[in-house]
């Protein structure tokens, strides 16, 4: 499979199915290829190992089990393992039985908590019952082993918990009814609690797709729903007050391990698992989880930082440093952020000199950006309390990042903390003299804001005028940049969210500014009203301060034309369209329908289509055509209902059958016809004469 189709589930299923029909020598490379991509796919491991078991390749079978069992806590796969063990030890007598018993214990220690492990417990108990006992002591030991197995099984929430309880009752009663009464009364509450947990647990387990393959996160609804289902199951296991093994965390560990079989490429699951171990006091277990996570996701920079943080928090500084160095050693991950984080790490753990030394080396890196200079300068200023070093770092950065407006602004903020207004003004002047006009907008904005806050009136007005002159040719200011507006006054005398005018005034000014910018365009009246009404209180407030927020994309209304349904590309309005047709659009449409020569769309039809259209016209009821032609011209999007009803009542609509028409006319109860004023579009209700239909 190519890199593009690496995690293609459909292709993987096709390969797996094809391997079923091949000899093991040909199928093995296919399985190895699949399992290198899906290392937690229990169904592929099981298919692979069963293919080896069929040909009695015991060595290969053992090797496969050693690779997959501990990472795939899947009951069918483990039952395949116990079947292999029982077959291998079947003819070894007592020694083989002991090996099989150890294999059962090993299996139950890993998958005994699975909700589907009921058959495993039953098989184990049946195996214990089948062990031979040559004397009373061995019989007693066998009964004790069976009893312990039952007592563990009936407190485990599985699908077969009720069946196991019934079997346990029968077992105890078959041994001793007197002893059974005490034991059953002791374990009845535990069984009842486990059954209640099972019923709750089943709700979460039923939402999980157990055949899902582990693929990287996608935006598909199915993958997201599976993530939600697993998070809900994990939350249930963590917070369930009725959890059976409350003294230990085996069920939570088991749930996380099963989850990672399917969400193997999800960094948040690995992180949650490791931090849960750390919060539980198992720091070594958390370290092992992070190591497995980086093996699964070697390119995850997030997990590397999380792992380094854990090591640093527990005092393992050398291990944490190696992790940072591994990030810096990866060309793809060596970014400005990696340099910054390593400088901070060195400053925390090795001191000022180590951080300074690495900064001097990082400056020479191709991945060093202005962020590294800013981060180190602020660290020297805030942590080392050394403004001189910080100032020197900023000045050194000016040699490389004079063209970066954001670096200039960071430098200006630093100088503001020093109350160095003289150097701030000098910095702005240096930057504005070197930056292109398009990139100086934010610098001018900060410069004017600085003068409005800390400068005198003359300096304030001078900088504003310089800004307008400098940006007069950009889209930021437009043609009206040189004109003084009330917006400037509002900006000068506002503070944070305090304004020298009301919100209504801000709204009005923002509309005026929009109109001023579009004054040279041919703008429709409706477009102006729509554009001016589109701003709310908050947006207009922001518009009053910054002209940048007024850059709203609007259509060019000067290019708009009135839509006419009678005009099509390559056609024109028919010459014989009369004034009556234009005053009555419905009548003109009906006329065009009744006469195909007047309809441009009909004139483009071929002869076959025209004949079909004629057939449609013949089938049109005359009453419908007569009704449409009698409708008057109505201005507006919605006709007046009263007018339509009045026309219907006063019109003699022809029908296909003359006799029925005569009868209907004679049966109609007439009333006073509406006056001319009633047809003018008045919204008053009119008396509707009753019509009796035959």
Automatic annotation (TrEMBL):
Region feature (Disordered): 654-694
Chief location: nucleus
Compositional bias of kind Polar residues: 654-685
Alphabetically ordered keywords of this record: Nucleus, Repeat, TPR repeat
InterPro entries the record matches: HAT, Rna14-like, Suf, TPR-like_helical_dom_sf, TPR_rpt
Pfam families the record matches: Suf
Cellular compartment(s): Nucleus
Domain of life the protein comes from: Eukaryota
PANTHER family assigned: CLEAVAGE STIMULATION FACTOR SUBUNIT 3, RNA CLEAVAGE STIMULATION FACTOR
This protein's name: Suppressor of forked domain-containing protein
Organism encoding this protein: Hibiscus sabdariffa
